[in-house]
């Protein structure tokens, strides 16, 4: 079955530690996105990538980093500079990015908590 | 200003009844798309329905329909014959043609609880 796989489902971070959230897709999609969701709020865009080896900052990129070395993979690193990392992180992908009707396909998310 | 506004943090509906979830949007773009997603407690986001700004007919997908009122900039989701499995968070989202990232902009969501 095609889809987006996020791992781990739950992740704990210690103070001063960097952690990496995995996102893999086998949908052959060009575009991939990372969103952050806080309780009672909608999703906010952290980073996105429209092509391999290229990515752009979203609305709340500070304290995060990404890479896009392969089409299938778009890992997100939450660095120690992110002072409030506790949130639910969702990875998404889409086929193309030049159409307003292109929907996003989402993974099942990673809940990150600070110890 | 908020691009997507969902004014109902939470709603109740009786099983088998219809319910309307409100969504208003703000854009100066002529070409845009509107989406509704469902998020059950498991966390995944499930696509429900799409409406394009140039579509003349309201979108429908099974029990879901979108009440699109362009002049009012509203895109309300109507769920008919509610089922217990409809209990979830519902998000309205927009994609603008003028945005080169083509990201989805989300509202804050409405939590729907279906009563038996």
Structural notes for this entry:
The complex is a heterodimer of chains A (about 120) and B (about 120). Chain A is mainly β and about 120 residues long. Chain A is about 0% helix and about 50% strand. Chain A contains no helices and eleven strands. In chain A, the strands form two sheets. In chain A, strands 2, 4, 5, 6, 9, 10 and 11 form a seven-stranded mixed sheet that branches. In chain A, strand 5 and strand 6 form a beta hairpin. The termini of chain A are far apart. The model of chain A has no long low-confidence stretch (mean pLDDT about 90). By secondary structure, chain B is mainly beta. Chain B is about 0% helix and about 50% strand. Chain B contains no helices and twelve strands. In chain B, strands 2, 5, 6, 10, 11 and 12 form a six-stranded mixed sheet that branches. In chain B, a hairpin with a 4-residue loop joins strand 8 and strand 9. Chain B is globular, with a radius of gyration of 14 Å. The relative contact order of chain B is 0.34. Chains A and B meet through strand 4, strand 5, strand 9 and strand 10 of A and strand 5, strand 6 and strand 10 of B.
**Structural class by secondary-structure content of chain A:** mainly beta
By DSSP (H or I, 4+ residues per run), the number of helices of chain B equals 0
Tell me the strand percentage band of chain B: over 45%
Helix percentage of chain A: under 10%
Q: Please tell me how large the radius of gyration of chain B is.
A: 14 Å
The count of β-strands of chain A is 11
Subunit organisation of the chains? heterodimer
Order of helices and strands of chain B: EEEEEEEEEEEE
What gap, in angstroms, lies between the N and C termini of chain A? 35 Å
Q: Could you say which overall geometry of chain A the principal axes of the C-alpha atoms support?
A: globular
Which class do the helix and strand fractions of chain B yield?
mainly beta
Terminal Cα separation of chain B, in Å?
38 Å
Radius of gyration of chain A: 13 Å
Helix percent of chain B reads under 10%
């Amino acid at each position: 079955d095609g889809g987006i796989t996020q791992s781990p489902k739950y992740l704990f971070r210690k103070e001063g530690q960097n952690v990496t959230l995995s996102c893999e897709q086998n949908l052959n999609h060009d575009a991939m996105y990372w969103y952050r969701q806080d309780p009672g709020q909608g999703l906010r865009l952290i980073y996105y990538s429209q092509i391999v080896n290229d990515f752009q900052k979203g609305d709340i990129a500070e304290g995060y980093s990404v890479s896009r070395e392969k089409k299938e993979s778009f890992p997100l690193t939450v660095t120690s500079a992110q002072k409030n990392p506790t949130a639910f992180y969702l990875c998404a992908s889409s086929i193309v990015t030049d159409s307003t009707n292109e929907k996003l396909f989402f993974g099942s998310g990673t809940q990150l908590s600070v110890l | 200003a908020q691009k997507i506004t969902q004014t109902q943090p939470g709603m109740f509906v009786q099983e088998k009844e219809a319910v309307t979830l409100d969504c208003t949007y703000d854009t100066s773009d002529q070409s845009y798309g509107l989406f509704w997603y469902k998020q059950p407690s498991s966390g995944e986001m499930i696509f429900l329905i799409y409406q394009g700004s140039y579509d003349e007919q309201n979108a429908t997908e099974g029990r879901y329909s979108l009440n699109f009122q362009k002049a009012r900039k509203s895109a309300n989701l109507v769920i008919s014959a509610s089922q217990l499995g409809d209990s979830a968070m519902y998000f309205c989202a927009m994609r603008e043609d003028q945005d080169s990232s083509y990201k989805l902009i989300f509202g804050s969501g409405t939590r729907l609880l279906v009563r038996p």
